[in-house]
Amino acid sequence: MTCAEIRRQPVQCCAGATVADLLECLIQIRALEETPRRLQRLLESTTPSAWQRPGPRGGPAPAEYLAELVARERSLARRLLAAFGGDAGEPPSVGDPAEVASPTGRATAFAALRAVTLAVLAERSAGELGAPMPGEAGSGAVLADLVAQVVAWDTECLAEIRAALDQVAAPQGGA
Fold it and tell me: Among 91, 89, 137, which residue's Cα sits nearest to residue 110?
């Protein structure tokens, strides 16, 4: 094998993951850190009532999407703590999404849960990021893939929230 051929080969890091895969995962973890800040900026740029109005084509209100983000993040934090948390057990109690009535309360709950997720991820080694998750070996769930899925969820949910808020801000009806 020539040097040029060797350079074209993906560098295997651990558990079959390439260095590029792991770098991508680290970038995606940074994206996860941004979601609470993006939500905060949306909250600061709108009125609380805008979050309660139905979305495009009568779809869910932005507050409902925010409740879904809280529910997903609670589930993710539980899953990560079960796999890696040891004695940490359950994520902090932030109230049921239905009980966290205001958009600000939901965003605060989401940020607290996301902090748990990020803390668990920050303690993972490169090998753990590229390997099947403990307790889920049969499922084939790799932590790096889960991170990518959560980034996609965040992106989709924030896009739906923005679309709904933009509809509220746009003039209704025609002249």
Answer: 91
The amino acid occupying position 144 is A
How many Å apart are CA 62 and CA 47, to the nearest integer? Answer: 12
pTM over 0.70: yes
Helix (H) or strand (E) holding 17: strand 17-18
Q: List, in order of start, the domains of the chain with CATH numbers.
A: 11-168 (1.20.120.450)
Q: What value, to the nearest 5°, has the Cα angle with vertex 134 and ends 133 and 135?
A: 110
Neighbours of 10 (CB within 10 A): 10
Q: What is the DSSP string of 96-165?
A: -TTT--SHHHHHHHHHHHHHHHHHHHHT--HHHHTSBPTT-GGGT-BHHHHHHHHHHHHHHHHHHHHHHH
3-state secondary structure of 19: helix
Condensed to tens digits (0 to 9), the pLDDT of residues 54-111 reads: 888 888 999 999 999 999 999 999 889 888 875 555 666 655 545 567 899 899 999 9
Q: What is the CA radius of gyration of the chain?
A: 19
